[in-house]
Amino acid sequence: MPRILRLLLISAVVAAIATGGVLIWSLQADSSDFAFVPRAAVPAIGVVTVAGQEPSPKGAGSLYYSTVGVRHATIFETWFGVADGGELMPAHSILQPGESEADRSRLDAVAMDSSQSAATVVGLRALGVPVTVKSKGVRIVGIDPQAPIATSGAELGDIIVAVDEERINTTDELRAALTAVGAKRPVTLTLHRSGEMETVTTQTIKGPKNTPMLGIVPSEASVVESTRKVTYTIEGVGGPSAGLAFALQIYSAGKGYTNLHGLRVAATGTLNMQGTVGPIGGAGEKAIGAGRVDADLFLVPMANVAEARAGAPDGVRVIGVNNFTDALQAIENATTP
Q1: Into which CATH architecture does domain 133-223 fall?
Q2: What is the model's pTM?
């Protein structure tokens, strides 16, 4: 074989090996970005249980909550995109500045808990069941990384239940307790964390108009009380987007599922205790997931209609809603000739 041909052949082999090595590396190595991956919608009947509910009659219809898989994208996916209807999401769209993935997981767990409380309130009240909501402390949903509390041992998701051993239940009570302490003063916080009580010592900071503050984003943690108990059995899913579906499941169980008229309904949307439905992420991927369970309807927040319709397969009717009443009416309208 001529020398020049042999050199060209060797070069080609080396290039092929190098290219193959880069390809294998890109398929296995994670990037800093994330991938949203479609998942089949999940039956709500096994997740949400209302005390005294009757079994779902055969053919009565069913409800599903929509989820999306979130994982680190591979290097290959950052170059060529996410397969099977997935979407590449830059890290800054998932994590706030200074926020770790562990922080995000804790906040997602908090958001799931809040969505369940809101769903219970909205679903039961729609059935005419009396419900009371009581604040049980102030949850930490954000921490200023420059504030002393950031290094005190307090964590996102903790619930502040006492300030210098004085019980607090609401943000107003927290504000009053901190005013009594004063700005730039030491303070001891009693925290409820994962069923345990923790105590941390920190220092207040000076806010606007010299107002004493902790340097946190507060949110009142609530407990829902009712004559009809609702329980949730769910693992591996976080965030607030199942609120609408959970409330619909509670209401439908209370109605013996007659309100569904045999329809397979998937739903997604945040929900507050007033019944307002808010926007979510991954609407296109969730629409694909609704199609995987042959949903007749996919109820989404009004702000996500265009994205959901773009991702929805044939046969899945996407309907936008602003509140829980809209969702009930959308199901009813779908069965009206």
Answers
A1: Roll (2.30)
A2: 0.81
Report how far apart, in Å, the C-alpha atoms of 337 and of each of 59, 297, 332 are.
19, 16, 10
Model pLDDT for residues 202-247, shown as the tens digit of each residue: 999 998 888 999 999 888 888 899 999 999 998 878 888 999 999 9
| Sequence-ordered alpha helix ranges (H) in the chain | 3-28, 75-80, 101-126, 171-181, 243-254, 283-291, 305-311, 324-334
Q: Which residues contact 45 (CB under 8 A, 6 or more apart)?
A: 56, 62, 63, 249, 253
Average of per-residue pLDDT across 302-324 = 96
pLDDT-derived band of residue 13, with 50, 70 and 90 as boundaries? Answer: low
Range list of β-strands (E), 196-269: 196-203, 205-206, 212-213, 216-226, 230-232, 264-267
pLDDT at 10: 60
pLDDT at residue number 98: 73
- 317 in helix, strand or coil? strand
Q: How far is CA 79 from CA 18, 33, 70, in A?
A: 17, 11, 18
For 37-130+227-334, CATH gives 3.30.230.10
**Residue among 130, 141, 133 at smallest CA distance from 107:** 141
- What DSSP character marks residue 148? G
- How many beta carbons lie within 10 A of that of residue 184, not counting itself? 12
Query: Is residue 245 a contact partner of residue 63, using CB atoms and an 8 Å limit?
Result: yes
- Residue 189's DSSP bridge partners are 163, 200
Nearest to 88 by CA among 133, 32, 136, 140: 32
Distance in Å from the first CA to the final CA of the chain: 80
- Pairing outcome for strands 317-321 and 297-301: parallel
Handedness of CA 166, 169, 171, 172 (dihedral sign): negative
d(CA 91, CA 110): 21
Q: How many Cα atoms within 13 Å fall on the side-chain side of residue 83?
A: 3
Domain locations along the chain = 37-130+227-334, 133-223
* Torsion angle, alpha carbons of 295, 72, 112, 190, to 10: 180
| Distance separating alpha carbons of residues 111 and 93, to the nearest angstrom | 17
